[in-house]
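User: Okay, second chain of the day. Same drill as before: sequence in, C-alpha cells out.
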Amino acid sequence: MSAKKRYNIGVMVGGMHGTFPKQIISGAIAAGDEFDVNICLFLGTQTKGYFQDILLDEYKQDTYDYQFNTVYDYALISGLDGLIISYGTLDRYMGDITVEEFAEKFRHIPTIFMSTVTDLPGCHSLISDNYQGISMVVEHLIEKHHCEHILFMTGPKNNTDSIERKHAYLDTMARHSLPVTPKMIGTGNFSEFVNDEVEKLLDDNPDAQAIVFANDDMAIAGYKVCKKRGLVVGKDILITGFDDSEIAVSMNPPLTTVAQDGVAMSRTAIHDMLRVLQHDNVVSRRIPVSFVQRESCGCPPAEESGKIPATDLAQEVHKLTLTIADMKAEFTNFQRKSWFIPIIARELNDYMDDEKEFCLQIMERIRELRTKASYLFLLDPPIVYDGKSDWTCPETLRLASFYRNGRSVSYEPSDRPHVTADNPISKLTHDGDLHNFMTFLLFSGERQYGLLQCDIKSEDFSFFYFLSLQIGLSLRYLEISKAEAAYRLAMSNDMEKIREENRALDIKSGYDKLTGLLNLHGLTDRITKVHQTVTTENAHMIYADLDHLKEINDTWGHFEGNFALQSISNILKSCLRDSDIVARVGGDEFVALVTSGSETFESLFRERIATACRELNASSGKPYYVEISMGITRFHLKPETDLQSVVAEADKRLYEAKKSRRSSIRK
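Assistant: Same drill. C-alpha cells below.
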C-alpha cells in the first residue's frame, strides 16, 4: 500500500509589514502542521510605505519595491499541488494588472483567492463580509453616538476589501440621509504610515465627529495625527478600524473595530484546498465578521457598562499582558539576531574569490540560526529588471547550496542542479520531512540574484527579511568581484600578448628597448657578419653581469631595477668605442666583442668600469650600489674560431669574478 501523498501548497502574501498579512502567515504555518502539508510562502515584502514617514522625499522612490512583485512567478517552477493567493494583501502593489490577468498565470494550478472575489474557472474565493462589518460600525456611530459628520479612510483603489468597505460606508450614510462629499473620503494604503492623508482629511473637515478607517493599521496613523493636534480619541473625535489586530486592544484608548481572523481565514483556505485536491465540492464563500465595541468610538469601558464580568475582564487583562510580553520578547529576539547580520556580511567578504565556498558559508551562517532547512537558489546569470519591461519567470534558476539534516552542501557553479518543470523546487527540497518554507527574493537595486528558502518560525520573518537583503547585497559584491577578476585576467592576457608582440618586435629589430643596446638576435647577426669577413685579428670577449639585480627588484621595485640596467648599459657604451659590439643578452647579462691587440686592455677596461661605477654611485642618490662583475677572454678572431667556446670561457671567468662581489648592494 502506497504512503499518503503529502501535498505542497503555495501561499502568496504581500505587504508583509501589516497586521493582516502576518495573521495569514501564522494561520498557514499552523494549518500546514495540522493537516500535514508542506507550505511554501511567497512573500512580497514591500517597504516604501513602511519607510515613508522617516525618509526624505528624494529617497522614497529608491526602494525597488517592484522587485517583490516578481517573487510570485517563481511559484510556476515550484512544483506546487495547490496555490492560495492572499490577493487583498498584494494587489495594491501590482499596478494595473487585474485579478483575472494575475490568475491566468497560474491557471494550471488549483487556486483559492483570499480577500477578493473571482468567478474564474478552477478558482475559489474566501473573503470577509466587508460590507456587513463597516455597516455595523457606521450604524453604531450614527445610532449610538448620534454622529452625522463621519469621515472615511479607504484603502488602495482597486482592492476588493477596500471597495466593499467604502460601498458599505456610502450606503449606510445614504440610508440615514447623511451627506457625503468627496473631501470626506481619504485614500490610504492599508499601512499605518498614512499620516499625511489623515492630516488632509482633518484639514478639509475641521468639524468632523468621527473617522471610520478601513483597517486597524491606518487607524494607528489616525491616533498619531489626533494626538499631534490635541484631539482626544473617544471624546473629541471618534475612531474605528477593521481587523481586530492584536494591537487594537492595547491602543489608548482601545480601538473599536471589526473582527476578521486572518489566522482562521488562511486555515480555512488550506482546508478547502485539500478538499479541492481530493475532488470534493468546494464553493466560494464569505467569512462572517463581528463588531468589537471598545472606547475609541466613545463608548465607556466595558467593565463600567457591565457588559464583561469581572472574571472575563481578568482573563482579557491576562491575555493582553501575555501579548505584550510576547511582543517584547519578539523584539528583543530580533534585536539580538540583527547584530548577527554585519558579522555574516564581514565573513562572506572573505570568500569573494571562491563562489562555491561563499554559498556554503551562507548556509553555515543560517544553520547557526537554528533553521530546520534552508536552500539558496541563484540565477545564472543574474537578471537586470527595471520594473518597467515585461517580466517572465526565468528559466535559469539553479540550486547553489542547501542545509538540511544537520549538513551544509554547496555546488560548483558548473554542477548546480537546474530548476525546471520536471525538476521543480519542491523536488529539490524534498527530504521526506514536513516543512514550512518562507521564500525571500534576493536582489540589489535592479539586479536580481535568486531566492532564499528557509524553514523558520513565523516570528522570525522580520529578521530573515533583513538577512535576505544583506545576502542580496553580498551577492552584488560577489558579482563585482567576479567581474573584476575577469577584467584583471583579461588585462593580464592582453599585457602578456603585448609583451610577446614586443619581444617579437625586439628580436625582429635586433635592439633591446630598455637599454638601446643590441639584443641577442642583433648580437648574433653582427658577430656573424664580422666573423665571416675578418682575416685574423686580436680580440677580447667580455661577459658581464649586473650585481644583485634581484635584490634591487625585490627591495625597491622593478623601476629601480630598470634604472640599474640602463646605468650599466650607459657605462659599457661610454667605456667602449663605437666600433665595438655590445649587447644585452638576458635579464642582467651583457656581452661585448672588442677588437684590440693591447695586452693591457683588460686591466684598463676594468679600471674604467670601476671608476664609472664609483662616480655613478656617488651622485645617484640611490640606496643601493650599481656595480658589475665581468669575465674577459683574449682570443684570435678568425673565420674558423669557435666563438661559443670563447663565450663559454668568458662566462666561466665571470662566475669566478662574481665570488668577490659584495654580498649585498644596499648602501
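The two ends are 90 Å apart (CA to CA).

User: Thanks, on to the next one.
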